[in-house]
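Researcher: Please generate the 3D structure of the following complex. Treat every line as part of one assembly.
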Amino acid sequence: MKRIYVNEKWCLGCHLCEYECAFANSGVTDMVKALKGKKIHPNIRVEDRGDVHFAVNCRHCTDAICVRSCIAGALSFDGEMVRIDQNKCVGCLTCVLVCPYGAILPDDEGHVAQKCMLCTNNFTQEPNCVRHCLNNAIVYEERD
Amino acid sequence: MQYVIIGNSTAAVAAAEKIRAIDTAGKITMISDEPYHTYGRPLISYYLLGKTDAERMKYRPADFYESNHIDTIFSTRVEKIDAEKKKVILSDGKKVGYDKLLVATGSRPFNPPMEGIESVPCKFNFMTFDDALALEKVLLPEKSVLIIGAGLIGLKCLEGIADKVREVAVVDMADRVLPSILDEYGASIVQRELEGHKATFYLSDSVQKFDGNTAHLKSGKEISFDILVVAVGVRPNVELVKDAGGKVGRGILTDDRQETSLKDVYAAGDCTESYDITAHTSRILALLPNAQFQGACAGVNMAGGEAHFTNAVPMNAIGFFGSHILTAGSYFGDTYVEKSGDTYKKLFYSDNKLNGFILVNMPDRAGIYTSLLRNATPLDEVDFEALKKDPALMAFSAQYRAEKLSRRV
Ligand SMILES: Cc1cc2nc3c(=O)[nH]c(=O)nc-3n(C[C@H](O)[C@H](O)[C@H](O)COP(=O)(O)OP(=O)(O)OC[C@H]3O[C@@H](n4cnc5c(N)ncnc54)[C@H](O)[C@@H]3O)c2cc1C
Ligand code: SF4
Ligand code: SF4
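Model: Done. Output below.
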């Protein structure tokens, strides 16, 4: 199964992936309208310290602890990836408490959790962060 | 192979899923005294709050039993385990034989003897969907409610009903709310917030006597109420195993494969004890993720696989009206504290290990701290000074990151 993988040494820390993620998931197809003047809540986050930069998003773990811990059955593995059903989610944040990568987060209003679904849930249909990463610091491919 | 599972909640479902993943042919029977499709037990307060409904509360999809070929016997109690003949005896007298049995009976409300309690006309516990449905029927804007117990269940009930009634009073013997997971400062934030929703707290106090719709407290105060909710604590349902001759302490005792001292009888969830690796002691961890971990472990072993559950850690996410309190582990050792307004962080550590944490209204990436607890990570392997301020993967080694971010996990 294809996953997003990180090539840490190639990441420049430009944070473009964060904007592309927020845009793809905004529900608006005009990037300026989607992002201008707004605080973004992307599912991918870039960490920076000195010369080290890397992006972190959901690893779509095998036997994911978020799925196992969800009190509502709102998280599930569908055979391809770990999905959230925000309609079932009650926003308890147990998933945030257990994800070892800090890759699932409260949405901008804090009412439900949000996470990466590899852009299958928006109009881009393929990870928009990867598509726009200039340096291949994140890639979308099959690995062991 | 005949698998019988007593219970139909988190631990039971987790076991059934694992069994079915390994053994596609065996017969699985789930027995519960509740009548419903499996539901998220913690969701009963969200139901009253209007944040979910009966359909969305389903813990697994509507076709769960069908698609996993699970037979169900609902609205029926198991009265007895005959461990010698390998049968369970049901309340309607029927017997069901098993090769492997899972006891996932959870817990029940503890109702301590209280003088005059029989004179209270309208009283509830808050453990089941039926409890929530019954309570819902009597909630009216002019009613006042008294909740005994300022623990997790009492306060979630409070959140569920506060905006539907005139006022809510809460009495607890402890000197603060959520005493099992919060210290004084954290508790004060939560209490202030709940007081903003018409709640009044009577702490370090208890009911001496009920007289119809009046509670007389030890302190001499009196509270008049229309509806009483008793949420002082829970007791694990250990009797089936105990009466069959299995070992029990406070909860059912199992090995790390979740098997009890009775052969082919497994137990998981709130009815059992776990070995808490942060407190270095065996105790009941009545928490949903823990029930899932134990249930899944039991299921694998029942189906002939090999699984061990060896890193139980208490962990709790609870919130009220938009606040978020995330806690885990045990509270001892040195501390690191950040507080400002309604946000509060406290980390506890000693002997090169993180022991526990309290995070009030700062949930971001809390799971990175939890992973330190569950993995018992030596703190000298990470940049703990950086982690204290900011839970981030930057504080881990480049090799750790390479393993986690550039390979399948
Ligand atoms: C109001 C409330 C809020 C909660 N909130 C949270 C939360 O936010 N986070 C969290 O982690 N945990 C929370 N919990 C705790 C969580 O619900 C439990 O840890 C979890 O449900 C345990 O699952 P279990 O499978 O062990 O047992 P249970 O969910 O207790 O289920 C056991 C089932 O077995 C049935 N049963 C028992 N004996 C028999 C018998 N003899 N015959 C037939 N059936 C029987 C019971 O009726 C019950 O249906 C909350 C609990 C409550 C009540
Ligand atoms: S949210 Fe976290 S725990 Fe869940 S699948 Fe993604 S990385 Fe794994
Ligand atoms: S916040 Fe939502 S997805 Fe996360 S554990 Fe709670 S109910 Fe499940």
